[in-house]
């Protein structure tokens, strides 16, 4: 079964909106390696339409310019790109297509096919739906040491909690913490259980 990984830049207070406005001062070699590690193994990418348009408006030009990020730009151009949108889309960026049918059903079927990892970058609405359906294997959160205090947050309100399991983490020199979560199981317990772990003065 193919693995789905999702990566997001996120503030301390959970904001993921417009990271291009606040995360670049924290971008260093460690973060570059983390981003490439998450996306570099993917041969398919899923996008919400807004995120796709941002990528399509930037990466083809970066590939053509031949700068330091041209290799990553070529990778993004070469791989299969599937865009989630309710409206009919037309594409100019190579290897792009629109997802057909129900998102959860289509992604469940996609995971069963042959191929490498399936990656997401940003695309908050898509990530939310796939998390709720238990389809994301690794959620990479690059937690920045800044509280934005306004903007769209990753987790919206719902009637039930979403337990996750910490798979690994690393702290960068900039103070960014790279956390990787997988699906978790709900835990039970109360104060009576917790107080057993309190030290006696």
From TrEMBL:
Ranges of residues in domain Bacterial bifunctional deaminase-reductase C-terminal: 2-177
Name of the molecule in the record: Dihydrofolate reductase family protein
One Pfam entry name: RibD_C
């Amino acid at each position: 079964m193919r693995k789905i990984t999702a990566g997001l830049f996120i503030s301390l207070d959970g904001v993921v909106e417009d990271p291009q406005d606040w995360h670049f001062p924290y971008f260093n070699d460690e973060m570059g390696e983390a981003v490439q590690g998450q996306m570099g193994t993917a041969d398919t990418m899923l996008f919400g339409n807004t995120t796709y348009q941002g990528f399509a408006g930037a990466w083809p030009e970066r590939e053509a310019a031949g700068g330091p990020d041209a290799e990553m730009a070529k990778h993004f151009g070469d791989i299969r790109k599937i865009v989630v949108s309710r409206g009919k889309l037309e594409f100019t960026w190579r290897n792009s297509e629109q997802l057909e049918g129900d998102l959860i059903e289509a992604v469940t079927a996609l995971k069963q096919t042959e191929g490498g990892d399936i990656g997401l970058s940003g695309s908050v609405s898509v990530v939310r739906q796939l998390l709720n359906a238990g389809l994301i294997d690794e959620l990479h959160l690059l937690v920045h040491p800044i509280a934005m205090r306004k903007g769209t947050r990753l987790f919206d309100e719902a009637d039930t909690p979403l337990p996750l399991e910490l798979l690994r983490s690393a702290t960068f020199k900039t103070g960014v913490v790279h956390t990787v979560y997988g699906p978790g199981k709900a835990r039970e317990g109360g104060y009576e259980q917790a107080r057993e772990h309190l030290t006696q003065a």
